[in-house]
């Protein structure tokens, strides 16, 4: 039996349905809300109302749900119309027998008759089993798909409840689950609401669950397939974006940088702005942008730019991880970092203000004097050289500036050329990259220079900036722009190439540095000693593994300017032609002013203009330098220093330098003059000052340790607070180094022993030599007679020439043996009579190669001494070539030899007559004053000078000329 009762019923708007067991919250109009509150207030128990879904705006569903009013809330804000919120909890189904009495409207509270359906018995087992199965399946799949752990737990819990719930509670469970699924369609919900019988309800719920489960499954499948296709699409989209970006970059390169249609820097993928490429690897992109900027800064139409652009395009096509990519990138880094003379970026840097300075030569002179002691002649020659460089440079600038040959200022310049210079000089400030960037920015904004339509020069920023351009012929586009625009700096200043020849440590390198400082140009040194491979100068071709540019390009890059001073050190030690190519020939190309405007480095593979580079060569001797190379150089000889000069250099330069290098001041250490002289004479014996500097360095370091120990033990850190020797007790520190202390500091002197051994002996004569290092010195020539058969044996690593001159000397002695009373008869061979002997001649330092004819007279003297028994005093040394007739010919290296003899404390030197001028010109006065020179024309004169007048007896009268300075 159904109970019928009159109930306040809330009409629910489509698609809201309240199922039993469910809880909903609704918003109500003010009237409905106040009415409901009145009812709540009037009711003594908790108010129960009916709810009914409105199937259309005017009709209601015959079934609804009785619901308890849990809460009615009146929000504070009165602004909105629906101000009341009501929470309802569904209790049980109700039936409305009278639905035709309408019309009804949603969201109203009306009085309606409602019937509670009679209580139903427990459902049949046939409907329960499929219900349980369908519900479990649905809940499992829901649990699987749930993204939140808490939801998943709820589904699992309900699924367990379904298993455990009693049969008669199954319909209630069905209500709970259906109310809980929020994706159930409106019609299905209404149909389910209408199912009053428990079997009917379970059947419908089962249908609903099956339907829902299949929907979820299908949805999942669809989602999955959508997902797949979506990610494919995304990938495609991404790749297309990349492609577009690459395309854009390529187009950008193809277009001349000053293209008229180039958009503003903001919209163009300009350097520094971020593009799709940049997003991927920012730092990589930055590097690439820098390279790109440098390429853009290269002179238009230049070879190097074409090459760089070509490689850049290749680089864009190659995947970035590949080896090839690395190779090309490395190449691009090199080619863009060379200071190309044609590049506008360097045009202003090379504008040498220093040269224009009227005081240039005076400043240069001062610079040379500051850096070097003495070397007067050399400094004079260098000043001449710098004067020529300056004159040529200024001449070149004048020519470039002269308004003839159709080069005229475009647009009236603001105020003459100087203004322009100022402006351009301002531009130079900042580093090279920002310069390059500025240029590109300008290029992007400006119009191209070529083409008839661009005759509007006023619009061309870049041209205006350079000030001077060739006036274009109206019919012809302007050509060769970059060359014209380079300005005076590009004019090559071709001075002679200087070649400093001299022993080590004579200041060749430091003179080169002084020249660079005087010209205000960067200085680079390339050591050619032992270079056997042409590739070291010219670079390896790019096909070669680990290839790279040669030393010239490396030096240019390091210098960062197209006009550095490059010192080619030890050109005499460069290897000759071999299977690695011909390094000397490569050097020739570098040095030849006719060729070096297009030097070809194999790696760079674009002709490089070296004509602005100032090359200076150094070498120890001239003998091994090839004639073509010598031909290109202006030789400046540095022959070594006298002891006096060395002491001066040590006082003024070496000691202060060493003190500074070791963290001391002149107050800490000083050397007495005798001490310095002792170092120079007993610890070093060299033409230059390298060993002297080393020895002074050793003394300074020794004193540094002493000072540190003293300072640590006494706590005195200020040298000024040093107590005088008398006052101090215990430990003392003595700042002056005296001669007798040197042995303690430097060890036993190196040259003492040899001095003792220079004894007067039969068959021993001292000759003069210049070693491979260009250093002069004395060389003992030892001879001895051994029983034999009249042979001459020569040892001591002798070359062909010196061996021949030994034989020659012996022949001369043999032919004059009778005159010198060696033999009794003219026909006798002195090596056979009275006893048959062999003569053995040896030159010590057997490992050192010796060659040349200059030992001729010394060897002759040695044979005469051996055969006559007369001795040559040890203070005498000699040099000179001898002919078969006994004439003495001139030899080279006189200054070195004389200085060497002076160092060895030789007081009398016998020299060829023809070398008189060399002594007068080259040998310093103080040395000349301390030595006696005997200039000789014939062997007879040599013998008299060597053995002393009257020591040797001559048959017949001999006239001996002696000349003294
Ligand atoms: P080189 O290149 O001829 O082998 P360097 O130029 O390297 O010799 O000189 C060696 C050292 O001697 C340097 O420290 C240099 O400054 C110093 N030196 C050489 N000659 C002089 C000089 N005339 N005045 C001052 N210092 C000198």
TrEMBL record:
This is Lon protease homolog. Residues 419-432 have a biased composition (Basic and acidic residues). Signal peptide: none annotated. Belongs to the peptidase S16 family. Residues 759-949 form the Lon proteolytic domain. The keyword Cell membrane does not apply. The active site is at 854, 897. The lineage of its organism: Eukaryota, Fungi, Dikarya, Basidiomycota, Agaricomycotina.
């Amino acid at each position: 039996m159904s109970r019928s009762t009159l109930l306040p019923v809330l009409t629910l708007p489509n698609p809201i349905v309240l199922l039993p067991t469910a809880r909903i919250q609704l918003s109500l109009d003010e009237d409905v809300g106040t009415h409901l509150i009145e009812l709540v207030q009037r009711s003594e128990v908790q108010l129960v109302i009916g709810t009914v879904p409105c199937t259309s705006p005017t009709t209601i569903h015959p079934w609804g749900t009785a619901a308890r009013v849990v809460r009615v809330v009146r929000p504070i804000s009165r602004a909105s119309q629906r101000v009341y919120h009501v929470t309802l909890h569904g209790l049980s189904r109700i039936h409305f027998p009278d639905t035709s009495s309408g019309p009804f409207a949603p969201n109203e509270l009306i009085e309606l008759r409602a019937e509670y359906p009679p209580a139903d018995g427990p459902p049949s087992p046939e409907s329960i089993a499929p219900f349980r199965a369908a519900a479990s399946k649905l809940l499992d799949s829901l649990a699987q798909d749930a993204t939140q752990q808490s939801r998943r737990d709820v589904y699992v819990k309900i699924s367990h409840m379904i298993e455990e719930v009693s049969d008669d509670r199954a319909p209630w469970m069905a209500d709970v689950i259906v109310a809980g699924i929020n994706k159930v369609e409106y019609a299905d919900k209404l149909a389910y609401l209408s199912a009053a019988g428990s079997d009917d309800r379970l059947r419908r719920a089962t249908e609903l669950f099956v339907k829902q489960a299949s929907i979820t499954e299908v949805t999942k499948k669809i989602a999955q397939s959508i997902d797949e296709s979506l990610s494919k699409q995304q990938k495609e989209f991404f790749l297309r974006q990349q492609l577009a970006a690459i395309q854009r970059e390529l187009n950008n390169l193809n277009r001349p940088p000053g293209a008229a249609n180039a958009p503003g820097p903001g919209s163009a993928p300009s350097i520094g702005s971020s593009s799709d490429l940049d997003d991927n690897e920012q730092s990589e992109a930055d590097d690439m942008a820098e390279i790109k900027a440098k390429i853009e800064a290269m002179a238009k139409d230049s070879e190097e730019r074409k090459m760089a652009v070509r490689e850049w395009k290749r680089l864009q096509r190659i995947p970035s991880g590949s080896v090839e990519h690395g190779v090309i990138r490395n190449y691009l880094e090199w080619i863009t970092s060379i200071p190309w003379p044609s590049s506008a970026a360097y045009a202003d840097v090379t504008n040498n203000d220093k040269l224009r300075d009227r005081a240039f030569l005076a400043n240069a002179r001062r610079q040379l004097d500051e850096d070097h002691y003495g070397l007067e002649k050399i400094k004079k020659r260098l000043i001449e050289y710098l004067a020529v460089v300056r004159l040529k440079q200024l001449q070149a600038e004048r020519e470039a500036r002269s308004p003839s040959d159709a080069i005229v200022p475009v647009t009236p310049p603001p105020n003459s050329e100087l203004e322009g210079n100022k402006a351009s000089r301002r531009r130079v400030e900042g580093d090279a990259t920002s310069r390059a960037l500025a240029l590109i920015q300008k290029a992007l904004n400006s119009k191209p220079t070529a083409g008839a339509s661009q005759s509007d020069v006023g619009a061309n920023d870049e041209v205006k900036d350079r000030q001077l351009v060739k006036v274009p012929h109206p019919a012809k586009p302007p050509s060769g722009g970059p060359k014209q625009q380079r300005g005076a700096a590009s004019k090559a200043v071709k001075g002679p190439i200087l070649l400093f020849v001299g022993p080590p440590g004579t200041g060749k390198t430091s003179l080169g540095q002084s020249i660079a400082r005087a010209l205000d140009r960067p200085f680079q040194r390339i050591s050619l000693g032992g270079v056997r491979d042409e590739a070291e100068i010219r670079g390896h071709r790019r096909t070669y593994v680990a290839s790279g540019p040669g030393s010239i390009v490396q030096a240019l890059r390091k210098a960062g300017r197209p006009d550095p001073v490059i010192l080619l050190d030890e050109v005499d030690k460069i290897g000759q032609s071999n299977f690695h190519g011909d390094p000397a020939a490569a050097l020739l190309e570098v040095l030849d002013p006719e060729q070096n405007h297009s030097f070809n480095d194999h790696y760079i593979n674009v002709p490089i203009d070296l004509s602005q580079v100032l090359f200076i060569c150094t070498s120890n001797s001239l003998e091994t330098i090839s004639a073509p190379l010598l031909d290109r150089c202006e030789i400046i000889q540095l022959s070594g220093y006298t002891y006096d000069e060395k002491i001066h250099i040590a006082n003024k330069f070496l000691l202060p330098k060493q003190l500074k290098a070791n963290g001391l001041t002149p107050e800490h250490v000083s050397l007495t003059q005798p001490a310095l002289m002792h170092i120079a004479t007993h610890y070093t014996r060299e033409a230059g000052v390298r060993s002297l500097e080393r020895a002074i360095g050793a003394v300074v370091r020794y004193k540094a340790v002493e000072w540190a120990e003293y300072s640590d033990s006494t706590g005195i850190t200020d040298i000024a607070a040093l107590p005088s020797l008398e006052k101090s007790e215990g430990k003392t520190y003595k700042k002056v180094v005296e001669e007798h202390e040197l042995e303690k500091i430097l060890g036993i002197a190196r040259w003492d022993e040899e001095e003792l051994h220079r004894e007067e002996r039969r068959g021993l004569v001292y000759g003069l030599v210049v070693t491979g290092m260009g250093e002069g010195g004395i060389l003992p020539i030892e001879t001895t007679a051994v029983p034999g058969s009249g042979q001459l044996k020569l040892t001591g690593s002798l070359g062909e020439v010196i061996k021949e001159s030994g034989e020659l000397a012996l022949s001369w002695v043999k032919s004059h043996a009778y005159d010198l009373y060696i033999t009794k008869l003219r026909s006798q061979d002195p090596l056979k009579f009275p006893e048959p002997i062999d003569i053995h001649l040896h030159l010590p330092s057997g490992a050192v190669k010796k060659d040349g004819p200059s030992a001729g007279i010394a060897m002759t003297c040695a044979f005469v001494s051996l055969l006559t028994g007369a001795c040559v005093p040890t203070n005498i040394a000699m040099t000179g070539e001898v002919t078969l007739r006994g004439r003495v010919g001139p030899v080279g290296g006189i200054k070195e030899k004389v200085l060497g003899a002076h160092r060895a404390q030789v007081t009398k030197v016998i020299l060829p007559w023809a070398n008189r001028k060399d002594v007068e010109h080259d040998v310093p006065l103080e040395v000349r004053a301390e030595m006696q020179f005997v200039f000789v024309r014939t062997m007879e004169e040599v013998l008299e000078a060597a053995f002393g007048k009257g020591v040797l007896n001559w048959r017949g009268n001999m006239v001996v000329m002696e000349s003294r300075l």
